[in-house]
Amino acid sequence: MKKSIFIISLLFSILSFGCKAVAPKQLSIAVFIPGICADSPTYAMLRDGVTQAVDSWNEGKTLEQSAKLYVLEAGTNQSEWPAKITALAAEQKYDVIISSNPSLPEIVLPIIEQFPQQKFILMDAEYSGNNNICTVCYNQYEQAYLTGYIGGLMSKSNKLGLVAAQEYPVMNNIIYPYFEKGAKDANASSTVAFRIVGNWYDANKGAMLADILYGEGVDVILPICGGAAQGVISSAVNNKFYITWFDNNGFDKAPGNIISSTVMKQQELSAIMTTNFLNGKTEWGSSKMLGVKEGFVDFVQDDPLYISTVPSTVRNQMAELVDSIKSGEITIQ
Q1: Parallel, antiparallel, or unpaired: how do β-strands 258-264 and 297-299 relate?
Q2: What are the residues whose beta carbons fall under 8 Å from the beta carbon of 134, sequence distance 6 or more?
Q3: How would you class 84 by CB atoms within 10 Å of its CB: exposed for 0-12, middle for 13-18, buried for 19 or more?
Q4: In sequence order, which residues have a C-beta less than 8 Å from that of residue 51 and are 6 or more positions away?
Q5: Residue 252: count of CB within 10 angstroms of its CB
Q6: pLDDT value, residue 41
Q7: With a cut of 50, which residues of the chain have pLDDT below it?
Q8: What residues have CB less than 8 Å from 251, skipping those under 6 apart?
Q9: Which of 15, 44, 53, 86 has a 20 to 30 A CA-CA distance from 75?
C-alpha cells in the first residue's frame, strides 16, 4: 500500500512538472531611425509612438513579462543605412525591427534572406507578399494634392516651388506630380519648379535654392528636405513668401509665412502597429494605405495661425475639399 502511494505521488510529481506553465518569452523591439529624430518630426513621431505602446504594454507587468525597447538613430547618410540595419538584424535578439521610410523594403529584403527569422514593420512604405514584412503607408496622393491646392489658391504669381532633399520613387511619382496637380486644379495657370538639395541636412543649400526660386518669381514653396528645410524657412521670412508644410503641424515655425500643414498621424499609427505586434495581431505580408478618410492624414484647419494667415474664402474652399475627400465624393489618386 505504501509502495502504491509512493508510486502515485511520484507520477503526480512528474506530471505536475511536465504540465508546469512555461514563462512567456520576453519580447524585444528595435526601432531603426533612418535619420535623426531632432531633424525629422516623422522619425520623432515613430519613436514616440512605439515608446508609448511599449510603456503601456509594460504597465503592471513583471520584468519577465515586459517588452524591451532599443532605439537606433542611423544618421542622415543614406548609404550607411543598409549596413546599420543589417548589423541590427545580425544581433538576432529583436523579435521585430520597426522603421519608417519608403526605401526600406528594398533595403531589408536581402537582410531577410540572410536572417530568415527577422521580422520588420515598416511605416510610410509599401510592400506586400513577404511574410517577414508588414507595411503601412500614408495616402501621400491626398497629402500632396491638398498642399498644392492651397498653394495654388494663395500664390499671387502663379509660380510655386518644391525643394526636395533628393529624388526617390515616392517623391518623383506621387508627391511632386500631385502637388502640381493640386496647384493646377486650384488655378490652371499655376506652375511648379522642382529643386534638389542633395541631402537631408544642408540648410545653407536649402536657403540658396529658395532665394533663387524667389528671384524667379516663386512665392509659395513646399520644402521636403529634413534639416535643410530650416534654410527654406529663413529665406521665406527674409523674402516674405509663403511656405506649405508637410507631415506635422509647422505653423509656429514661421508665423505668417506658413499657410498650411498637412499632417500624417505617425505617432498614433506607430503605437497601433506596435500594440498589434505585442498582442500577436500583426498581419504579416500585408500592405495598407491610410489617408484622410481613415483619419491618418489630415489638413490642419483649427490652428490660430492658419486662421489669421489664410483668408476666410480660401479656408472655406479648403474645408469643402477636405470634407469631399472624407466623404468619398472625391478620390485623389
Answers
A1: antiparallel
A2: 119, 120, 121, 122, 273, 282, 283, 284, 285, 286, 287
A3: middle
A4: 69, 71
A5: 11
A6: 87
A7: 1-23
A8: 245, 258, 261, 300, 303, 305, 306, 309
A9: 53
